[in-house]
Amino acid sequence: MCTSVKDQLLALATAGRVFYRDFIDQLGTIVYTAGIAIAETAASGGVAALWTINTLNDALVELGNLLIQTITGFIELQSTTWSVQNAFDVMLLNPTGFFPGEDGVYRWPSTESEGFNHKDDDWTLDGAD
Asked: Whole-angstrom Cα distance, residue 98 to residue 123?
């Protein structure tokens, strides 16, 4: 059960990390592109306005891509979150960590022997010295 919980938490953490990493990568591209446009304008004294407008247009396109990527990433993150939540719900229904038997009932596994049945004999196997 601990391994299952760990695996689910790792899946959730990975999905979150990927979402935020992709967002920051895309945002960095936009900031970089906008910085180039500002630098071109300042360096040319406004003479290179046509290239500046083109660069700003590229930044707007990147902003649109960021919006699409953010929505898609959020949906993927929510899908992973729901999947992990469902796995945890199953674990709560099955707290022993064992799957149901042939009769569909969840239970702890039984012992090989029923001879350890008395505390009075310090739980020793019946018939053993």
From this structure: 25
Taking only the tens place, the pLDDT of each residue in 47-70 is 767 777 888 888 888 888 889 999
- Domain hosting residue 26, numbered range: 2-93
The overall pTM is greater than 0.85: no
| CA 13 vs CA 23, 54, 129: distances in Å | 15, 39, 54
Asked if residue 86 lies in contact with residue 79, where contact means CB atoms within 8 angstroms, the answer is: no
Residue 101 sits at the vertex; the CA angle it makes with 96 and 105, to the nearest 5 degrees, is 70
With beta carbons less than 8 A apart as the criterion, state whether 19 and 76 touch: yes
Residue 35 lies in a domain: yes
Residue 126 belongs to some domain of the structure: no
Count of domains observed in the chain: 1
Cα distance between residue 82 and residue 86, in whole Å: 6
43 domain-assigned: yes
Residue 36 · residue 30 · CB < 8 Å: no
Is 116 among the domain residues?
Answer: no
